[in-house]
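Morning, I've got a small favour to ask if you have a moment. It would help a lot if you went through both lines with me. Thanks so much in advance, here it is.

***
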Amino acid sequence: MRLLTLPGAAGALGVLAALTFATPVSAHTALSGSSPGDKAEVSAVEEVVLTFNEEVRSARVVVQDAAEKRAHRGTAKIDGNEVVQKVRANLAPGEYTVGYRVISGDGHPVSGSLTFTLKPGAETTDGASAPATASASPSAVADTEGGGTRWLMVGAGLAAGVGFGLLITMRRRRDA
C-alpha cells in the first residue's frame, strides 16, 4: 500500500523547504522622531537628534542650508536608537535640510530627510517628537537598499524546483 503519491511528496517537499528557509518578518528601521521636528520653526539649534524605532549601527547625517552649504560640524554620534549631529554656531536664518543614512541592526541601509526653519527671535514651534517623513535625501547622502533576504528566498525557490524536478524524473524512470 502506497502512503505517499508523487503530488503528495512534492507538496511535502515544498512545505519542508518553506519551513526550512522561512525567516522571521522584520520591519526595517524607521525614523520615529526628531528634534527639531520635521517642518519645525525654531529660534535656535545646537544639534539635531534623530530617534529611530530600533538600534542603529552606523550613521551619516548632513545638515545643509538652502544653498546646500554644510551647516553641521563633526560626525554624528550614535547612542542606541538615537543619532546626534552637532551644527555650526551662529547659523543664518533660513530653511535647513537634514539628510540621514543609517545602517540598522539587521544591516539594512535606511535614508531620508527632513527640514526645519531657523527664525531667531521667533517663538519656537518645534514638533520635537513628531515623526519625520522619509523623502529624497540631500545629494551628499546616498540611498541604497540591501537585498539579502530576497536572494535567500530565490535560492529556496530554486531548491524546491530542483527537488520537484528530481521527483518527476524519478517517477518517469520507474514507470518506464
Q: What stands out?
A: Confidence is low (pLDDT under 50) at residues 128-148.
